Amino acid sequence: MRNVVWFSCGAASAVAAKLAVKELGNVDVVYCDTGGEHPDNKRFLKDVEKWICRKVTILKNEEYADHFDVVKKTKFINGPFGARCTIELKKVLRHRYQRPDDIHIFGYTIDEQARADRFDKAHWELSTDWILIRHGLSKEDVLGIIWKSGIELPSMYKLGYNHNNCIGCVKGGMGYWNMIRNDFPEQFNRMARIEREIGNAVINGVYLDELDPNAGRGIKEPNISCGLECQIAMQEISES
């Protein structure tokens, strides 16, 4: 039986990996390389490998270069079962890698209890260990743990994004895409061209080349804190 941590190059899954390695011992830490994330993620992955004293297994779907390639080739963005790029670049790889008796560990924090419940209901056949929720850790807490451990946060966090997904995530709204327009104009324009090619918009009813530059409230810079639960987790981590 394996404990498999699905590492996303985000702060939460990094802390989940650290706690799992300490608590459970027999742990595989696995990263699905989408090809569309910030280049700094490679640096963060190496830093996390040193921190958790464990090599990260990297999976890649060679059928697609990145999430732009998925949208262009499949002509499909979002649907009832999620974003097509998530399915092709992450879920397909998980299905190939997993075994029936694996225990799956994801970086869901205490703020995402409802999300974890929905996952368990939808994937009743999988065994999960919501390790961050067990420890009562919030999104702010995991950012604080990374900071206190002396690891530089991924560039997307420092730019003010509240996640470390692909640059130009199809799940983003108007404010998010206007941030991408400013920070990553090449990726913004690439998705705008693909939208017109396939006749489908990332934002429902609004093509990116028609998006009002002032639309959306933007995304606030993430808070970094270390409360009681964070301090307890830090103590457990430091004892490893």
Please characterize this protein's 3D structure.
With 240 residues, the protein is an alpha/beta fold. It has a domain at 3-137: HUPs (Rossmann fold, 3-Layer(aba) Sandwich), CATH 3.40.50. The protein has helices at 11-24, 40-52, 67-74, 84-97, 113-122, 131-134, 139-148, 155-158, 174-183, 185-198, 228-238, and strands at residues 3-7, 27-32, 56-59, 78-79, 82-83, 103-105, 127-128. The strands form two sheets. A five-stranded parallel sheet has the order 3-2-1-6-7, sandwiched between helices. Strand 6 (103-105), helix 5 (113-122) and strand 7 (127-128) form a beta-alpha-beta unit. It is globular, with a radius of gyration of 18 Å. The relative contact order is 0.17. The mean pLDDT is 90.
Write the layout of secondary structure elements.
Layout: E1 3-7, H1 11-24, E2 27-32, H2 40-52, E3 56-59, H3 67-74, E4 78-79, E5 82-83, H4 84-97, E6 103-105, H5 113-122, E7 127-128, H6 131-134, H7 139-148, H8 155-158, H9 174-183, H10 185-198, H11 228-238
